[in-house]
Amino acid sequence: MTNTAPAPADSPSAAPAVNSNPFNLRVIEEFRANAGRVGGQFAGVRLLLLTTLGARSGLPRTTPLVHLEDGADRLVVFASNGGSPTAPAWFHNLMAAPEATVEVGAERRSVRARLVDEAEHDALWARQIAADPAFADFRERARRAGRTTPLVALERVAPAPEAGGAV
């Protein structure tokens, strides 16, 4: 069964995003109802909502993710899948269609995803582990499973200039 959460009022799409995980659906609903604040185990955690297009279905898929801020226009997410031997579905969706939408707090922005260069991995991992030590375990479990966790930069897409406006 597929569940849905209402899209934000200012969403360009009237259709709610889709998430098949009931736990994630509750987090999405709480996030949207409280301008990005979520309680319980996520109290104080930097969460964003990532909406991608399903690689096979073409439907919008929304996933709550922990993120690392890396400048004003770049957010980094870790495709750790909790240290699983396989990458999460949202990662496959982004690789198939890198244009996506993120919600951070009450802000909604268009982003383009790209894999983080290998040279940046260790420094970004160190920052994330310092912010959330559980990520050390996720990284190690993925390594034991023979997988290097991809890091994805979500870079803000500048809005197109309005017709007749300055470039």
TrEMBL record:
**Recorded superkingdom:** Bacteria
The reaction(s) annotated as catalysed by this protein in its Swiss-Prot or TrEMBL entry are: oxidized coenzyme F420-(gamma-L-Glu)(n) + a quinol + H(+) = reduced coenzyme F420-(gamma-L-Glu)(n) + a quinone
What the entry lists under Gene3D superfamilies is as follows: Electron Transport, Fmn-binding Protein, Chain A
Q: Under the cellular component aspect of Gene Ontology, which terms does the record hold?
A: plasma membrane
Could you tell me which InterPro entries the record lists for this protein?
F420H2_quin_Rdtase (IPR004378), Split_barrel_FMN-bd (IPR012349)
GO molecular function annotation: coenzyme F420 binding; oxidoreductase activity
Q: Which family does it belong to?
A: Belongs to the F420H(2)-dependent quinone reductase family.
What name appears for this protein in its UniProt entry? Nitroreductase family deazaflavin-dependent oxidoreductase
Native species: Streptomyces albireticuli
